[in-house]
Amino acid sequence: MVGPYRGLFSAPGVKGFVVAGFVGRMPMSMLGIGVILLIQNLTGSYALAGAVAATFNVSFAVAGPVSARLVDRFGQARVIVPLVLMHGAALTAMMLCARFGTPRWVLFATGVTAGATAISLGSLVRARWSHLLTGSPRLHAAFSFESVADEVIFVTGPALVTLLATMINPYAGLIVALTCTIGGTIAFALQRGTQPPVRHGERRSGSPITIPGVALLSGSFLAMGAVFGSVDLITVAFADEHGAKPVAGLLLGAFAGGSLVSGLWYGARQWKVSLRLRFVRALAVFALGLAPIALIGDLRVMAAALFLAGLAISPTIITGYTLIEQLVPARLLTEGMAWISTSVGFGVALGAWAGGRLTDSFGASNAYGFSFVCALLAVAIGIGGSAWLRTPVAQQ
Questions:
Q1: Rounded to an integer, what distance in angstroms lies between the CA atom of residue 301 and that of residue 97?
Q2: What are the extents of the domains in the chain?
Q3: CA-CA distance, 79 to 124, in Å (whole number)?
Q4: What is the CA radius of gyration of the chain?
Q5: How much is the pLDDT for 247?
Q6: For 4-7, which contacts have Cβ atoms below 8 Å and span 24 or more sequence positions?
Q7: Closest CA to 164 of 44, 329, 31, 263
Q8: Disulfide: which of 71, 84, 99, 334 matches 185 by Cβ 3.0-4.6 Å?
Q9: What are the phi and psi torsion angles at 39 (to 5°)?
């Protein structure tokens, strides 16, 4: 790694938790589309597939801050190991229920359990970086690297799970995701030397969501999550309508690929513009990039358009996490970061549900209009409350 990334991984234990964290959160880009592909394959309904995926994401979003607060209170390792084992059992139960044709409500029940026990491993990784680099300018590079790692996951994950589910077996993608999440999370938990210490005796009343800036960020990321959830499902249907369903993963990979490129560029720069202005401008660019996708009818053109639309994702997410790190007390940092994942999870659930219904009713191209409206909503929230994003430190 060069430039600001040079030496970032030289501290003892850093490479270990970074690699384990990468493998453990690989399924975050695989589970949603894997569930959609499995349920749609069994029932032929994108609406039902979107509803089951939404159930998973809603339960994850509701439980996320709770598990994060437990992590802040008891430590990462003591909390995430039992959670990931329960998550693996619930996901296995969902696949078995789908295999043996149990009533539909059972799919929703297992989806709730699997989502409630899922772990926001990205928040835990960033909490370790924050613990190790508090006050250091290298923290910006660390958060940028993690955003790039997320986008590598979102480039490769959807393509992998789509190919496995469509070319091998509908269950294959979820089985690979299950293996990654259990193996990576347990390996991450075993590396206790870099985990943030539990601050015994500190006052823990209140929640980060009561901080106006955190609430504002959560609202914007809720709308962005709706974009992600709807684009995931609608893009599968778009490729299917063009007789190339396996290409859906590549299209979604192009969306994430734009974010990967911009993440590397964004992290390598030293910024003089304040964080709050960067956040609002990135949201605006995101909405502008999504504007043309409802008008495109060619797979190759759609891949290029999604790549361009994805260019604003990483800068928005990197800035959001940096704002959280500066707005939230250290004793509540994991929970504060989890509110971003929670908000995105709620948004993904809404987007998957709405995208499925709109796709079934109006077709994939028309359904993309919902994604664009959600992006505009994210911009409106960010602009309307940007004054709450002023941070108390010099680097804004």
A1: 39
A2: 13-196+209-389
A3: 11
A4: 20
A5: 84
A6: 4/138, 4/140, 4/141, 4/144, 4/267, 4/268, 4/270, 5/141, 5/145, 5/267, 5/268, 7/138
A7: 31
A8: 84
A9: -70, -40
- The residue type at 243: G
Per-position b or e across 106-125, b if 16+ CB within 10 A of its CB = bbbbbbbbbbbbbbbbbbbb
Give the per-residue pLDDT at 270: 75
pTM (two decimals): 0.76
The label of the residue with tokens 């003591």 reads 78
- The per-residue pLDDT for 173 is 86
CATH T-level topology, domain 13-196+209-389: Growth Hormone; Chain: A; (1.20.1250)
Is 352 within 8 Å of 367 (Cβ atoms)?
A: no
Q: Provide the residue type at 107 as one letter.
A: L
Q: By the 8 A CB rule, do 308 and 289 touch?
A: yes
CB within 8 Å of 277: residues ≥ 6 apart? 386
What pLDDT does 1 receive? Answer: 46
Specify the pLDDT at position 21: 92
Which stretches of the chain score pLDDT less than 50? 1, 394-396
Report d(CA 181, CA 26) in Å as an integer. 7
